[in-house]
Amino acid sequence: MAFNIFYGRPRRFTSRRLTYLVLIALVFAFTTFTILSPTTTHVAAPDNAAKNADPKKGKTSVSSLRESLTKGMSGLNPFRGPSHRPPVRAQDSYHGSSWWADWKWLSVPFSSSLTLDEDRALLPPLRDRPFIYCYYDATLKKSREEKDAESDLLLTWRRAWWAQGFRPTILGASEAMNNPMYAEVQRLQVDPELKKDLMKWLAWGAMGTGLLAEYTLFPMALTEDPLLSFLRRGEYPALTKWKGLDSALIVGQKDDVTKAIRSLLDSDNLKTAKNVIAGAPKDTFKTDKTPDSLANYSPELIKKQYAKVHESLTNRRAKGLGSLNRLINAHMHIAWQNSFPDGIDVLKPFPEHTTDMIAPAMKLANALAFCPDNPIPSSCPPTSRLSSCKRCAAGSAALKVNTPEQYQNSTRTYAIGTVPHPWTLATLSNLRERIDVAWIRKESPRDPWLETITKKILGDQVSSNLRIMRFKQAVADEHSPAHALWLTAETEVPSDINWQFGFRIPQGSGEADKAGTTPAEKAKDGKAQGPKSTKGKRAEKSTKDDRIEKPQPNPDEVAKGKELSPQEQRKKEQALLERAKRIITLTKQTTDTRLRASLEAWNLADTEAWKFARAFLARRSMERSEWEKEEAKYSGGAGSEKGRSAWSRWKDVKEKK
After folding, report:
1. What's the pTM value of the predicted model, to 2 decimals?
2. Cβ-contact 461, 467 below 8 angstroms
3. pLDDT higher than 50, residue 313
4. Is the pLDDT at 80 greater than 60, yes or no?
5. Residues 619, 369, 505, CA angle at the centre, nearest 5°?
6. Is residue 62 over pLDDT 90?
7. Which spans in 238-358 are helix H?
8. How far is 576 from 570, CA to CA, in rounded Å?
9. Distance CA 492, CA 360 (A)
10. Which of 342, 526, 554, 643 would you call most buried, defined as having the most Cβ atoms within 10 angstroms of its Cβ?
């Protein structure tokens, strides 16, 4: 009775709301029990059990559904403990960019799914670089000018083979002394030429499996060439040489090298042989056909085909080596140009406002397209494939430079793309100095850059996930770096860009003429220019302002209906680009960094493309930089970028010129 008085009427326990509440509770309880219940750990079945199992027997629909639900909802488990991020190593970051290398780099569209870090990109593991060795005796008595010229030629050799995916290493007498057979060879009374050749083989045998080449042998093809692909695999079933190259290139395993040296030392031809190949038994080497992707600038070939360089070598060897260096560099540049007959594509999406953004890419493309400085302008590389190359004079254009909006996957063109951060693209394409959340949500399109450049190869009706996967393949697949270069809009072209192409790219007017100068001549040019005064340095430093400029109260500098002149628009684009560069490098929490994070979240695919391209380029530079520092310690620094050391190892004096 009191119950009825309190409520005024009998309570209806069968109301609709209570029914729905009970149903929802039952569904939630069943789902929680099904998904969050502990799963059993499957133990691998014995081999015989696996063989006796029925291969046609599949999983039931219920078990498959449960497994998929478990995998898909594991991240939503409220009882799951926190997981650690993959450890960050010192070699996984460089110049503000960080990454994590894993074979699953193409399994997910967004790196943070595996790295658990918004700032780290997921890159493919670095490919192993097989060793290619050359022998250079830095202890021989020569003039400083001649040794400097040889060092420049060695640098050209190292740069060319590094770009092809190898690890070029210069060996000397120190490596030969590490071979157990060194003492035995020194006691031999044989031809001096044979003993010199044996020193090279002893050094190779002490190092191990790889390629032994002369430093006048250069690749003249792209990375997908069959011979270069075979050499990069690092698996050599037998000692192999090539017809027409003599001893300019030999490949083999360490055991085969040791056996070849031993067979020569035990041979009856030891007293009369001039070199290892001539003295070793005939079945020691396998001879392959003449390659059309390698060029050996031997003295015989130079005398026959390049008389001008031969004459220079005869009259003054140091100057002749400089001419030879320029000739080889020009031939590699010509070989690269002939690989892309349709020219160079500099991608320019949103062409109305991205002229300054792609300016570094355009400058690089123009340098690549122009004919290189060549001591013999009418000459071609000494390979059958390039015997009728496209000839041109230095300073004239050999390739056409195009500026399409979309990327085309063509082997006939070389592509240079500039990947902008979403903030950079948003401010430039809309000429906005200030961005707010309301504009991002209501007016800003999602992933406009990636959609624009991939529209030609993927069409319109494709998700951003597929576009970003295709972009990553265009950046980091095995042979992709040989056909495209992806820069970032906020950084300059890498200083080691020559190592990515394999030849020296002229950087401006007058630069081509200095391509073959020796370090001594370069030093004279530097002294002639003179150092900057302290006052000038202070003035230059004072013009730099690292602080972020405060935006004006009115984001639109021009009233509606008034258009900017081309000069005013260009000036505004430059100012917006510089401001975007500073905002993107900020690490301290500010209003701009919070808006930057909002824009990144709105453009996940564009942000992923920018992070991936930046990290891939940074890792390439870091790999080469670390290797360069290590290799500069050997052979007196010959072939290194900083140049050969002119100081004597045993005396506190410099070499005589």
Report:
1. 0.79
2. no
3. yes
4. no
5. 50
6. no
7. 254-265, 276-279, 299-305, 307-315, 317-338
8. 10
9. 7
10. 643
Mean pLDDT of 511-527: 43
Query: Where does residue 94 fall: left (phi above 0), alpha (psi -120 to 50 degrees), or beta otherwise?
Result: beta
Q: Is the pLDDT of residue 652 over 70?
A: no
Give the CATH architecture of domain 131-310. Answer: Alpha-Beta Complex (3.90)
Give the model confidence (pLDDT) of 128-159 as tens digits: 999 999 999 988 888 999 999 999 999 999 99
Distance separating alpha carbons of residues 518 and 143, to the nearest angstrom: 13
Q: Among 47-51, 227-231, 363-367, 379-383, which stretch is predicted with the lowest mean pLDDT?
A: 47-51
Question: For residue 357, what pLDDT is reported?
Answer: 96
> Which of 4-8, 383-387, 600-604, 613-617 has the weakest average pLDDT?
4-8
Pairing label, strands 240-242, 249-252: antiparallel
Total Cβ atoms within 10 A of residue 371? 22
What is the rounded distance in angstroms from the CA atom of residue 292 to the CA atom of residue 226? Answer: 11
- Report the distance separating Cα 440 and Cα 537, nearest Å: 42
Nearest to 204 by CA among 237, 234, 232, 169: 169
Please check whether residue 103 is in contact with residue 624, taking contact to mean a CB–CB distance below 8 angstroms. no
Burial class (CB in 10 A: 0-12, 13-18, 19+), 311: middle
Collapsing DSSP states into helix, strand and coil, what is residue 344?
A: strand
Burial of 53 (0-12, 13-18, 19+ CB in 10 A): exposed
Domain spans in the chain, listed from the N-terminal domain onward: 131-310, 340-521+565-631
Residue 256 to residue 237: CA distance in whole angstroms? 9
> What is the Cα–Cα distance from 138 to 397, expressed in whole angstroms?
40
Which tops the pLDDT comparison, 330 or 391?
Answer: 330
Residues found in the chain: 657
Pick the more confident residue, 215 or 82: 215
The Cα 648–Cα 655 span in angstroms is 6
Radius of gyration of the chain (CA): 32
| Three-state SS at 248 | coil
Give the integer Cα–Cα distance in Å for 25 and 30.
9
pLDDT at 389: 82
Q: Which long-range contacts (CB under 8 A, 24 or more apart) does 457-463 make?
A: 457/406, 457/407, 457/408, 457/409
Phi, psi at residue 352, to the nearest 5°? -65, -30
**Alpha carbons 98 and 100: distance in angstroms, whole number:** 7
For 445-454, write each residue's pLDDT tens digit. Answer: 999 999 999 9
